[in-house]
Amino acid sequence: MTLAIGAVPLAACASVAPPGDGHALTITLEHGSDVEERTKNQLLRLLAAHDIDGWIFTRRVHIDESVIPHSHPVLTLHARHLGEDEYLLSTFIHEQLHWFVSRSAATDPVIADLRARYPKVPAGYPDGARDEGSTYLHLVVCSLEREAMAELIGPEDADHLMRGWGHYRWIYATIIEDRDRIAEIMVRHGMRLPERGGS
Hints:
- About 50% of the residues lie in helices and about 10% in strands.
- The protein has about 200 residues and is α/β, with parallel strands linked by helices.
């Protein structure tokens, strides 16, 4: 790992190449605090331990202990999952998958079918996302997140992890309970999780 000098005017910047593809992630810290530094190191360790090249769609990652994780315009993580490797990895993959879904031609037809299947969905914390549209979008993103985590830690542990989140509770519960039907909708429109180690 090398420090990038002058690349980003923030507290700290590190570059790391995920296994297999040789393209570095740039990880920046908002405050340069101990908790952000430790979260960065935890993420680097997880990326070294798991070959998830095919699930990386943006290579700029920012860590800010004071915000809610989000994908755009820069993938940003908070620092609340120290010592909780599976939650940090799942969050990182979730935000990466937002980039994948935002670029996919299958997203709109998948959401149209999900609207037909679930004509009334919750909006707002803790059951839904920001609004109705975001809840439908998160049915897609979180389904892919659950599929990714099932590959990494096994289906039962992935479901246990999903049930442990304090947010998107209806979304995750629906994905677990109606998994086969949601998968059928997504596969029909060509919305599939890319293969690990792919590009």
